[in-house]
Amino acid sequence: MDFSLSEEHIMIQQAARDFANNELLPGVIERDENQTFPHEQIKKLGELGFLGMMTDTQYNGSGMDTLSYVIAMEELSKVDASASVVVSVNNSLVCWGLEAFGNEEQKQKYLSRLASGEVIGAFCLSEPEAGSDATSQKTTAIDKGDHYILNGTKNWITNGGTADIYLVIAQTNREKGHKGINALIVEKGMDGFEIGPKENKLGIRGSDTHSLNFNDVKVPKENRIGEDGFGFKFAMKTLSGGRIGIAAQALGIAAGAYELALKYAKERKAFGTEIANHQAIAFKLADMHTQIEAARNLVYKSAWEKDNGKNYDLSSAMAKLYASKVAMETTVEAVQIHGGNGFVKDYHVERLMRDAKITQIYEGTSEIQKIVISRSILQN
């Protein structure tokens, strides 16, 4: 076992850390307050290769491994989870899904633009009545020979308003259940495709979350990913990798809150000494550090399994379940350590606490992760 990072991984870590502190930190509170999408910052991330990190270089990607991606996600998420979720969705769900399961024509037409950051993508699975129960798709894609007619609504779609390319999961043959579901590539501007209002969210307020409406949208048959009925399997395979990205996001949120709390505890004085010298605070920091390190090892292990061609369904579910729990608990304690200042936006920790909650919900709730984990261990 080797727990050291390579020189390349350290360089990626430093590059992501520098970008977070120099480009994301300025204005992050205002973007959160005003629900402003970080257009300029996302454009720069694309230019630096962060939006197609795991995509092959022949499709304008960076050709890096999954570990590089989670290292970058952690550093970006320490500062701005609203920006990092764009990186996560574009890398894990959209680019990876297209590269793994799309045909060559789809890769040339869509993947090369997505990986370069020329455009960004969105992954459209959740519906008003089909979030955790992904088999109950109400959105339909009726086969009309050379095209599909798409009708339905998708909810809580990250990058919903700013994306140009949407991967939409829809039911074609209800009698076949999950084997009758397809994944279609939909472009912004197609007739009948409408973007609903932006959601007013608790956290990750700078990210762009919308409902989407499809009203008799004509989607060419060549925009279907994989064979007929492959959509559900496509969604599950893609989400399994997506969990690694969100686990890394949760890890970054936790680590960012811990670093702020540690710095504050060394500076803030009470009862004649820095509060870090009080056992009540020192023990909180000890617990936070230990839990973050455990979460990091789970996240890195799932990335390692993915990079080495192993089945990472179990490890990614464990990583997301635990890292999101640590993110929530750590940010709450970071606010507590800051005392009254923790309740004030200028100190950042209240925003990290709000951002942490979504990591227990999207790309599979914590309850769903426990289903995945329990099924895996009970089958062995």
Question: Describe it for me?
Answer:
The protein is built from eleven helices and nine strands. It has 380 residues and is of the alpha+beta class. The strands form three sheets. A four-stranded antiparallel beta sheet has the order 2-3-7-6, covered by helices on one side. Helix 5 packs antiparallel against helix 7 (231-267).
Count of helical regions:
11
Instruction: Report, as a whole number of angstroms, the end-to-end distance.
Output: 24 Å
Helix content, binned percent: 40-55%
Q: Which class do the helix and strand fractions yield? A: alpha+beta
Approximate strand percentage: 5-15%
Mean pLDDT: 97
Per the principal axes of the C-alpha atoms, what is the gross shape?
Answer: globular
Biggest sheet details: 4 strands, antiparallel
